[in-house]
Amino acid sequence: MGCQDESLVQKVCEIYDNISNLESLKPSKDVNMLFTQLVLTCMPPNPIDVTKLCQKVQEMRSNLIQLCGEAEGLLESHFSSILGSYENPLHHVNIFPYYANYLKLSLLEFTILSNHSTNIPTRVAFIGSGPLPLTSIVLASYHMRTTTFHNYDIDSLANSQAFNLVSSDPDLSSRMFFHTTDIMDVTNDLTDYQVVFLAALVGMDKEDKVRAIEHLAKYMAPGAILMLRSAHGARGFLYPIIDPCDLRGFEVLSVFHPTDEVINSVIIARKYPSPRPLPAINQGLSGNMKFPSKCCEIPCFNPLLHGNMIEELAVEDQLT
């Protein structure tokens, strides 16, 4: 580990210690300051592989991801309650401090999806929608205006808050549904969706997330698309990292690593038909591409969003 990496890890550990000493993770001046400091520390592109750091740092990272998830949930619940007090909550959704990030992330995900699917899906599932389901709201409002969204969350209060946000909107209230259940208990219903989104905080550690992915691989319809959020580099201190090799039962189509204020990486994959076919070349953003094995990944710039992404794809036939 180089000096720069050591400095980064030390800084993250210091912030973790301060967060661990907080009496509460509910939004407050101190909480907001520390998590902003943490995000700004981890945001710059960094090739560090946080999964290979020493055991002590791995334990700290695991605890930190749990704390980030708890704080994020409390922040969303706080703002969902505020928005829910308005007569038309969705008219005020921009008061959420990270709303602009959701606009960018949703546009990115829709653009990636459009490059691998010829039709806008009619039915979509979003797993882990939470009390402030901004991805579903943004996609339904701006990008998928005829699509029905089925939002799954294990927390009944979160679903109640989320429903309250869209209930006064005649269009969205007719196209957005909320299911309170553990996704691991959903089986045959998963075949109804052409696209399934898996939120970054569903499965707070890699083992739980892999189990969720395996469940989706078992019950999703053959050929259906999985949109998965992960993390890359130092951002792996904030969210679990999923390697494409973990998506057994799926053909990984593309992996995108944002380098701007959008923190989450995006993986798009297609469930294999049964039986699994031989690897095929997929049409990507820049000509004929296929997803490579880990040892031959070629990083290149993705033209989406002014080139502020890194795209991990191997170019089969380089366009000139």
Q: TL;DR?
A:
The protein is α/β, with parallel strands linked by helices and 320 residues long. It contains eight helices and twelve strands.
Write the layout of secondary structure elements.
Elements: H1 3-20, H2 29-42, H3 55-84, H4 99-116, E1 123-127, H5 134-143, E2 148-153, H6 156-166, H7 172-175, E3 176-180, E4 195-198, H8 206-219, E5 225-230, E6 250-258, E7 265-271, E8 282-284, E9 287-290, E10 299-302, E11 309-312, E12 314-315
Description of the structure:
Its EC number is 2.5.1.43. This is Nicotianamine synthase. Keywords: S-adenosyl-L-methionine, Transferase. Belongs to the nicotianamine synthase (NAS)-like family. The structure is a single chain. The chain has a 9-stranded mixed beta sheet. The chain has 2 domains: 3-94; 100-315, Rossmann fold. The longest helix has 30 residues, at 55-84. Helix 3 (55-84) crosses helix 6 and helix 4 (99-116) packs across helix 5 (134-143). The protein is of the alpha/beta class. Helix 8 links the parallel strand 4 (195-198) and strand 5. Helix content is 37%, strand content 18%.
The largest sheet, given as strand count, sense and whether it forms a barrel, is: 9 strands, mixed
User: In CATH, what is the class of the largest domain?
Assistant: Alpha Beta
**pLDDT averaged residue by residue:** 86
Question: In angstroms, what is the radius of gyration?
Answer: 19 Å
Helix content: 25-40%
CATH topology heading of the largest domain: Rossmann fold
% residues in beta strands: 15-25%
* CA-CA gap between termini: 38 Å
The CATH architecture assignment of the largest domain turns out to be 3-Layer(aba) Sandwich
Strand order, largest beta sheet: 3-2-1-4-5-7-6-11-10
How many structural domains can be distinguished in the coordinates? 2
Query: Number of helix segments?
Result: 8
- What class would the helix/strand composition place it in? alpha/beta
Poorly predicted regions: 277-320
How many DSSP E strands?
12
Q: Given the C-alpha coordinates, what overall shape results?
A: globular
- Following the backbone from N to C, one meets helices and strands in this order, namely HHHHEHEHHEEHEEEEEEEE
How would you name the CATH homologous superfamily of the largest domain? Vaccinia Virus protein VP39
GO molecular function: nicotianamine synthase activity
Function: Synthesizes nicotianamine, a polyamine which serves as a sensor for the physiological iron status within the plant, and/or might be involved in the transport of iron.
Catalytic activity: 3 S-adenosyl-L-methionine = nicotianamine + 3 S-methyl-5'-thioadenosine + 3 H(+)
Organism: Kingdonia uniflora
